Structures are given as C-alpha cells and as structure tokens.
C-alpha cells in the first residue's frame, strides 16, 4: 500500500515554515505475524513536537517522519488482540497508514465519547490541566485562577476544571472569537484579548483588582510577566508550558524579582510523570459528560498534506480548542 507521510526537511529557525517539512511517499507492507495496520482518523497537533525539532539530540533529524498521538482505525490485523475495524489510540507517524506491533495501542469505545476527545479534552491535554491545577497547584475553592492561552487544548480544560472546583477564572486569549467562546459557552468569569491590549498587566488588573491566587501558565514571556504582576503574595504559579520560548522569543519574564518580593512558589511539571492519574481524570470526564458540564471545541484541518499548516497554525494562534488533522474517515478492512 502506497501512502503519503510528512517528514522533517530541515530544522526550523524560529517559527516553523512549510518549507521545513516535506510530503513524501513510501510503501507500507501487509502486516506480518503480531502486527496490525493502522489508518489514522485524527492526528493530534501539539506544541511539544516543536521541541523535537531543535537538533539531533532532540530526537528528530531531517529526513525522518514526524510522529504524534492519534486516533486510528485498524484496517488489517495479524495481532491476536486487535481486529480490523476497531478504533484505537496510539502514537504513530504523520502518515496515511503505518504498521504497529500493538504495544502502547489502546482500544477505544466510541459509545463512551467521541474518539478524538482522547486527543484533547479527555486526553493528555486535559490530564495536563487536571494534574497541574489539583496536584501541582493545589487549587482551592474560592480562589482566583489566571489561565494563559485559555482557549487552547490545555488552557480551555484548565478553565473548566477550575470553574468546576468553585474558583473564579480569568483567561487571556488572542482573539475576540476566543473571548466570546470562553464567556458564552465555557462560562469563565472574565477573558482578555491580549492582541487588543497594549498593556496586558493593566488589563488583568482591571478584571482582577484583588489579585490572583494561582497562575496556570502555558505561554511564558509577557504572559508570565503579567501574571506575576497581579499575583498575590505567597501564592502559586504552575508552569505548564512556555510556548513563547519555543521559536526563539524570550520565555522568561522581565519582572522575575517579583518571585522574591512576593515569595512566590513556582512549580514546573511534565505530565508524562503523572500518567497514573489518567484513570482518576477519565472518571471525572465521564461525570462531566453525563452532566453536560464539559465544553470543548476542535479546529480540524483536512488532509495529511496540510499537517504542516496545522502545526504552524498552533504558533499563530489559529486554533480554538484542540488542533487536529483529519486524515481519513472510518474504513472497513480491505
């Protein structure tokens, strides 16, 4: 079977460009004993993949196919645990099909929730928000929580988890559309379009006059700077990500002295260290779905050839909610 795939052509300098990637073809053989052939339905487009494009030591070299989390359908199987037609969650190449040995492949039940939710709200992004707020940030009811990139895959779940815990939630986003979604559908208390604000700190002080108790930081740079400025003394910052620093921009704040002056507790974490919490998180997600309390949005780009565009779009703020590439619809075994 001839398939198309996305390979890294060169290491990006700054924000990735389409010329940093190449669309290539290769032959995928029939599965051998103990193997299965997977056709991705949705590819998860995530910021962490940029870190793998920094040089040979980062894990990805030019000419290699890029990998990521995906929801896929088994289209052929010689594996005893999987049958053709089943839907699964796994890590796979950015390709129209690939072979797997079945390790780290998780069967999905589409009756429980839409399968692609396992890539966003009910997947690692949602778990990141859950662990970051409860375990790392020790969030308490009644606190004021500030979330940057609040309409992204992680940020939008952080907003909802904080609201469900009884907190006042303020989000910063990059467009009026995202502000409306967070206020009208997600139901947070205040949202700021930083693209329209010459002074983000002043804007936060308007909606947070008494200060914040917990900053859930996804961006870094000027966002962390503003968060530190409005944070109350002896409060906490959960450092989830620094997207501002992924493409060469400053990642650190200019007011780092506030950490000392306010006795701030800053904790960074990697969600991969907390995967044991996934079952507890999914139990909560199922309750939220049953109660109609969970809101999510997906930005879906069609076609494997457009995967680089989707990836670049992450760093340009083009996604509302989870960024996905739809590779193929469900298909029966050949």
How would you summarize the topology of this molecule?
Blueprint: E1 2-8, E2 21-27, E3 36-44, H1 48-51, E4 67-77, E5 87-93, E6 98-100, E7 106-107, H2 124-136, E8 144-148, H3 153-164, E9 168-173, H4 176-186, E10 190-193, H5 200-207, E11 212-217, H6 222-230, E12 231-239, H7 257-261, E13 265-268, H8 278-291, E14 298-302, H9 307-314, E15 322-326
Helix pairs in contact: 2-3, 5-6
Average pLDDT works out at: 95
Order of helices and strands: EEEHEEEEHEHEHEHEHEHEHEHE
Unreliable runs: 330-334
Gyration radius (Cα, Å) is 21 Å
Overall structural class, as computed from helix and strand content, comes to alpha/beta
The CATH architecture of the largest domain: 3-Layer(aba) Sandwich
Give the CATH superfamily of the largest domain.
NAD(P)-binding Rossmann-like Domain
**Beta-strand segment tally:** 15
Broad shape: globular
Strand content: 25-35%
The CATH topology annotation of the largest domain reads as Rossmann fold
Structural features, described:
- With 334 residues, the protein is α/β, with parallel strands linked by helices.
- It has 2 domains: 2-119 and 297-326, Quinone Oxidoreductase, Chain A, domain 1; 124-273, Rossmann fold.
- Helices cover 25% and strands 27% of the residues.
- It is built from 9 helices and 15 strands.
- It has helices spanning 48-51, 124-136, 153-164, 176-186, 200-207, 222-230, 257-261, 278-291, 307-314, and strands at residues 2-8, 21-27, 36-44, 67-77, 87-93, 98-100, 106-107, 144-148, 168-173, 190-193, 212-217, 231-239, 265-268, 298-302, 322-326.
- The strands form 3 sheets. Strands 3, 4, 5, 6, 7, 14 and 15 form a 7-stranded mixed β-sheet that branches. A 6-stranded parallel β-sheet has the order 10-9-8-11-12-13, with helices on both faces.
- The longest helix is centred in the last third of the chain and has 14 residues, at 278-291.
- The protein is globular.
- Residues 330-334 have low confidence and may be disordered.
